[in-house]
């Protein structure tokens, strides 16, 4: 039961999926929420990938229209929560100020020019990758698309417990204090499950899934190092920006895989 409550907490906090229920926010349930971060990502991935399958197989829509609908769905399902973090972190980063000033800029509810420009680039690149992927769609890609938000939420959870807090309030501080580092140990089981499922489907899919996991790990290490240098640690905005950044890199990876497979 506590696992289900933790999962529902994730849906309330990090998605636009309606969960019209007052949920307990005690430490055991927050710990379960952290443990089920990847399951919330899996839910988003299933919705995006499933919608894509329906649009391709059961509608007469053009690839461009399908790409736009899928692209829009990736925004709607999260309610733009992580995009807000991406814009705030971009404004802070491109200010080229010291850590304290960057934290102050991130806390400002106003969005600056750098935040607007950065989100335009992010969303434009995502649309490009989605359109190109759909234009040469195969069954393996449905699985890889499911992996994108699953891995990004996993990276978010590991970042939350391997980086010190940059400030002592906010969403990141709330989750870090309520749970424990041991909460993310279950992520290894998720990865094993992903690889076993990919292996059951096909060996090429297993290799592509491994590439996705390796790419996510590389960018986790990069974000972990740079977030301390740039911001002095982790904040809710930095976590949100990391989710968007990792997802963009994983969309790029899915887009690039066929080119490398043909070499």
Describe this structure in words.
This protein is an all-alpha fold. The chain has one domain. It is 78% helix and 0% strand. It has helices at 2-14, 27-35, 37-58, 63-76, 81-93, 99-107, 113-135, 139-162, 171-178, 187-201, 203-231, 236-261. α3 (37-58) packs antiparallel against α4. The protein is globular. The mean pLDDT is 88. Pfam families: CobS. It catalyses: alpha-ribazole 5'-phosphate + adenosylcob(III)inamide-GDP = adenosylcob(III)alamin 5'-phosphate + GMP + H(+); alpha-ribazole + adenosylcob(III)inamide-GDP = adenosylcob(III)alamin + GMP + H(+).
Low-confidence stretches: none
Biggest sheet, open or closed, and with what strands and sense? none
- Round the Cα radius of gyration to an integer and report it: 18 Å
**What's the shape?**
globular
Subcellular location: Cell membrane
Pathway: Cofactor biosynthesis; adenosylcobalamin biosynthesis; adenosylcobalamin from cob(II)yrinate a,c-diamide: step 7/7
Enzyme class: transferase
EC number: 2.7.8.26
Question: Nutshell version of this structure?
Answer:
This protein is mostly helical. The protein has helices at 2-14, 27-35, 37-58, 63-76, 81-93, 99-107, 113-135, 139-162, 171-178, 187-201, 203-231, 236-261.
Helix and strand topology:
Layout: H1 2-14, H2 27-35, H3 37-58, H4 63-76, H5 81-93, H6 99-107, H7 113-135, H8 139-162, H9 171-178, H10 187-201, H11 203-231, H12 236-261
Helix pairs in contact: 1-2, 3-4, 3-8, 4-7, 5-6, 5-7, 5-12, 7-12, 8-11, 8-12, 10-11, 11-12
Pathway: Cofactor biosynthesis; adenosylcobalamin biosynthesis; adenosylcobalamin from cob(II)yrinate a,c-diamide: step 7/7
EC number: 2.7.8.26
GO biological process, one term: cobalamin biosynthetic process
